[in-house]
């Protein structure tokens, strides 16, 4: 669907950040949201019934694809309540503990391996088994948007099911798109694949993690809709501007470390490239901390400003845990203990007061009114339900 139905005035967007095994946090939030919608509209509804766009980067791209890809009956492949079970079952095999411990032990003694931490074979086989030969254009219930980054061309590549329906060479297999957006540098090998049209023309992709370009894909998701309208300019008299009054946007993070002065100018001034990639004392990667955290916050800042400028901030809901510490803050600790802890973090996050980014300090602050994330999500669910009812009534 290039535009929302006329009777439903709002463009509805779901966006899910990247973050590896921390996908358990938005998985918990999504299960709660879908349960709320089912209470309103019946047990058979799914998230893809409510969102015009579902976007995700890296692990968020995998979640988004599972929520949007069709099964044999044309309904979403999995329910939101199945997401966490997927991670609990497959996480330890995607991120095997032995590989992680062996890799960083060698780095710590100054003998870094020449290969990524994980070979990625299990994840690639899993996605191909799960998604089979389904392609982007097979996604018909919603528009699936997945950012990636082409390391050969050094620019972002955004896959969209809407775009795939009109551009044959962009109609990639869903499994290839998922493996491309999940190919995080250091952790997994880059991912190569080709697409081909009926005339034998080919297009090649050399992809790494979409988080390099858009760890928080919310802005990409919104822009994909208006970009589609611009392509239709010859058929559309007016191109609407991005207007927060006409959108309902839910953006889910996978968690971040608390605001802390872990590094300073004197410290980093003496670092080599190895220090930037890996700190043996903390087992963190400062380079990726900086890039991922900075770009995600800038996206949140930009979108919040757009909505606030038209007095429609209530149409934008960002749920993010900003207090992750220890193993919970890392993207590849798939032990049973840590995975259960991440689910617990997601459940507690629902009970926490709703917060928004402070434009001046960059910190997240509680919203006045003593509203929890769960209450805000319930309000959002009711608005999604009302929007869907308007569309069905037509």
Topology:
Blueprint: E1 11-16, H1 24-41, E2 53-56, H2 59-68, H3 83-94, H4 97-108, H5 121-131, E3 143-150, E4 155-160, H6 161-166, H7 174-181, E5 191-196, E6 202-208, H8 211-214, H9 218-231, E7 247-252, H10 265-268, H11 273-277, H12 286-309, E8 316-319, H13 336-351, E9 355-357, E10 364-366, H14 373-393
Parallel strand pairs: 1-2, 1-7, 2-3, 7-8
Antiparallel strand pairs: 3-4, 3-6, 5-6, 9-10
Helix pairs in contact: 1-13, 1-14, 2-7, 3-13, 5-7
Concise structural overview:
The protein is α/β, with parallel strands linked by helices and 394 residues long. 42% of the residues lie in helices and 13% in strands.
Features of the shown structure:
394 residues, 13% strand, 8-stranded mixed sheet, single chain, alpha/beta, globular, two-stranded antiparallel sheet, 14 helices
Q: Which segments are poorly predicted (pLDDT under 50) over 5 or more consecutive residues?
A: 1-7
Q: What percent of residues are in strands?
A: 5-15%
* Number of H/I helices: 14
Q: What is the SS-derived class?
A: alpha/beta
The succession of helices and strands, N to C, reads EHEHHHHEEHHEEHHEHHHEHEEH
- Report the major sheet: 8 strands, mixed
How confident overall, as mean pLDDT?
87
Can you offer a commentary on this structure?
The chain has 394 residues and is an alpha/beta fold. The chain contains 14 helices and ten strands. The chain has helices at residues 24-41, 59-68, 83-94, 97-108, 121-131, 161-166, 174-181, 211-214, 218-231, 265-268, 273-277, 286-309, 336-351, 373-393, and strands at 11-16, 53-56, 143-150, 155-160, 191-196, 202-208, 247-252, 316-319, 355-357, 364-366. The strands form two sheets. Strands 1, 2, 3, 4, 5, 6, 7 and 8 form an eight-stranded mixed sheet that branches. Helix 1 packs across helix 13 (336-351). The longest helix is centred in the C-terminal third of the chain and has 24 residues, at 286-309. The chain is globular and about 65 Å long. It starts with 10 loop residues before the first strand and ends with a helix.
């Amino acid at each position: 669907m290039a535009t929302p139905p006329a009777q439903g005035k709002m463009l509805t967007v779901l966006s899910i950040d990247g973050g590896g095994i921390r996908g358990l946090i938005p998985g918990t939030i999504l299960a709660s949201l879908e349960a709320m919608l089912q209470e309103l509209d019946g047990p058979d509804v799914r998230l893809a019934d409510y969102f015009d766009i579902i976007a995700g980067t890296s692990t968020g791209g995998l979640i988004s694809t599972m929520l949007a890809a069709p099964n044999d009956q044309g309904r979403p492949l999995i329910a939101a309540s199945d997401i966490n079970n997927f991670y609990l079952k497959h996480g330890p095999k995607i991120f095997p503990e032995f590989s992680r411990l062996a890799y960083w032990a060698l780095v710590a003694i100054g003998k870094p391996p020449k290969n990524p931490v994980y070979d990625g074979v299990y994840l690639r086989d899993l996605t191909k088994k799960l998604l089979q030969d389904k392609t982007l254009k097979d996604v018909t219930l919603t528009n699936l948007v997945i950012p990636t980054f082409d390391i050969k061309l050094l620019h972002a590549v955004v896959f969209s099911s809407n775009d795939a329906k009109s551009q044959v060479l962009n109609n990639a297999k869903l499994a290839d798109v998922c493996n491309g957006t999940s190919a995080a540098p250091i952790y997994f090998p880059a991912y190569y694949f080709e697409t081909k049209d009926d005339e034998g023309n080919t297009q090649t992709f050399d992809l790494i993690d979409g988080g390099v370009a858009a760890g928080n894909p919310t802005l990409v998701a919104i822009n994909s809709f208006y970009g589609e309208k611009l392509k239709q300019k010859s058929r559309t008299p007016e191109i609407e501007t991005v207007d927060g009054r006409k959108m309902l946007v839910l953006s889910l993070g996978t968690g971040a470390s608390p605001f802390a002065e872990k590094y300073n100018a004197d410290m980093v001034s003496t670092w080599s490239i190895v220090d930037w990639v890996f700190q043996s004392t903390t087992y963190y990667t400062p380079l990726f901390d900086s890039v991922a955290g900075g770009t995600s916050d800038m996206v949140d800042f930009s979108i919040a400003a757009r909505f606030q400028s038209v007095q429609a901030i209530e149409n934008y809901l960002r749920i993010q845990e900003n207090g992750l510490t220890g193993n919970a803050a890392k993207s590849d600790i798939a032990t049973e203990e840590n995975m259960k802890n991440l689910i617990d973090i997601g459940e507690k996050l629902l009970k926490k007061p709703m917060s928004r980014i402070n434009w001046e300090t960059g910190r997240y602050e509680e919203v006045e009114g003593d509203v929890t994330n769960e209450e805000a999500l319930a309000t959002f669910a009711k608005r999604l339900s009302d929007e869907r009812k308007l569309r069905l009534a037509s």
